[in-house]
Amino acid sequence: MAEVEEPVIAPEVEEPVEETPEVEEEEDFVQVGGAAEVKLFGKWSFDDIEVRDISLVDYIACKGDHATYLPHTAGRYQKKRFRKASCPILERLACCLMKKGRNSGKKLMACRIVQHTLEIIHLLTDQNPMQVVVDAIINSGPREDSTRVGGAGVVRRQAVDMSPFRRVNYALYLLATGAREASFRNLKTMAECLAEELINAARGSSNSYAIKKKDEIERVSKSNR
Question: Is the full-model pTM beyond 0.90?
Answer without folding.
Answer: no
